[in-house]
Amino acid sequence: MKMSCPDHVAAKHWHVHQGIAAMTLRKTTSYTRVLAALHDESGAVSVDWVVLSAATLTLGMGAATLVQTGTVSLGEAINATLSSTQSNDSGFSFYRLTEQQQQEMLASYMDRTPEQLRENSSYMSAQFLSRLESGNLDEAARWIDRRQLNQTALDARGLDADEGAMTVAQMEQMFRDAGGT
What we know:
Blueprint: H1 8-39, H2 44-86, H3 99-110, H4 114-133, H5 137-156, H6 168-177
Helix pairs in contact: 2-3, 3-5, 4-5, 5-6
């Protein structure tokens, strides 16, 4: 509906009033659009996935760092133990096992229970005697190496070998007496 203006002043007032109404309408439209955008949930799932993926990635990287740190520490401890074993007062030096094999076996022995370590000392002694009696000096030497690592694990825990087990020194003497080098 169109209103008429009676005079020039009224017309000026009328145009100002129309301008304010137009600005108010524009503000209301912008405000409505902002509110609509805030309440619109399209894309929310994508944002949730981004947040969850970032959290999962962060947790995974943190776990990997912890595992790496623990693995490095274990490796250093095994290396230190092997170094002290190879340069100990008894003068023991490994016969057949490579350094890599020594580290792997010692790590395996360190994971065993005290009962398993004690039982292993008797088992290793029996295997050594069996190989020695059959004349297989190479395998007998490997069992001496294994028994030394077993003893290292026992010593690290303050444990004694099984009563029936031979000492590494006894095994070495028998090995040399049989012609082993």
